[in-house]
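$ fold --in a.seq
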Amino acid sequence: MRPSGSSRVDSWLGGDVVLVKAPRYDDVRGALAAFEFDDLPFQPRRVFTVRDVPAGTVRGQHAVVNQTQLLIAANGRIDVEVRNSTDRAVITLDSPHQGLLIEPGIWSALTFIGDGTVLVSLASGAFEQARYTNEPAGQ
């Protein structure tokens, strides 16, 4: 399912990781990006932010076994390493107008590049430690 009003521009790991661009609306008051929940290929059940992370810190380093996520760099830059049992890629998030859609079982590590970086994550389920694994799917 393709989000309406946004476009998928790149994909990795057989389509299990997809960069989605939100429509951007600019005027003299600033810029607005909108990811419509109804247009996402999953129903967000949880939203969380990660901030005040020292530059160079790596977060994540796990896969969520049965949840889909959309990662957005609301401010700053985050390098997202993703892996499955056979492939690896690094994608840079540096705009609140794009999000990285990650399907269940994909291992990811997020490197916060600069001070002041803010991550917004939409997830398809509630937090449960048992749903996390340190290995990508198929390992």
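$ fold --in b.seq
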Amino acid sequence: MALIPVYCVIPAWQTLSMNSGLMSSSSLMAKSLVAKTVKPRILVVDDEPDNLDLLYRTFRRDFQVLRAASGKEALAILAEEGEVAIIISDQRMPEMKGTEFLSKTVPQFPDTVRIILTGFTDVEDLVEAINAGQVYRYITKPWDPDELKQVVQRAAETYELLKQRTDEMLQAHTQALLLSQISEIAEESATLEIALNPIAAAFAEAFKADHCILRLAADEQLTATLGTFGPLDLQAELDQTPLLARLMATKQVQVLTDTSVGNAGAASASHAGIAAQVLAPVLYREQVIAVLMLQWKTDQVFSEGQQEALRLAIRHLTLALLCLQS
């Protein structure tokens, strides 16, 4: 049975909560507030097969467990699979000590939480690794499964906090960059028309959108003046999207998801493979002076922080457009 596109109406400068579809986790994009429940990933590294199997069985219920029998193999797994929440590594392994292996993971995966298992008193190695921030905890062999589970659970919580902090810092940087770009474009552009394409490009880059239109409006109607970003001519799509009438009537942000399925109202987006789009009104004294449309070819979601970033950017855009019009 064909799905029907979901239309969401969101107050223009209030929370932009949505269930499916907007923004991914690079730059300003992040997880949905209703994101699918996914087990954290953990990498266990030990050259002894029995220990490796025991670690796997200990954590398989609560984590996606990756296994490696050496530091070299573990580095190859990370290169292919990407970041994991936690690494548990034996210290004494052939070719490469656990601390040496973990130190090699720090530059690319600074947020990953690292735990060392050791049956020896490698004090110097452990102290150096802990002081360098490469090791979160060390556990002596033989370990108590319940104690190790508690340590790993705390490590998972630590990882989530670190990722949240990193995402917030990245978001703040991207937001500041976008506001700066809008101001710079407005200052350097001789006319309003000249500024529209660079502004559309700046929004697309900040929100990692595949396409963007910034189109001016007057007397509650779209004008022919617009700026675009992306490989496609989206002017017709903005005219045809069913979200436009809703936006003009409510002056609220509009979100369309599930546009990949067949539906007459979504045909203009689906032919280009658009999975999600958002239309935001640029308001001045409760009048729509422009419409910003962002489109993505993959399902996306807004986090609360990115919602605020969009609100602030649109407000800044309002001032820039007014200055260019004067």
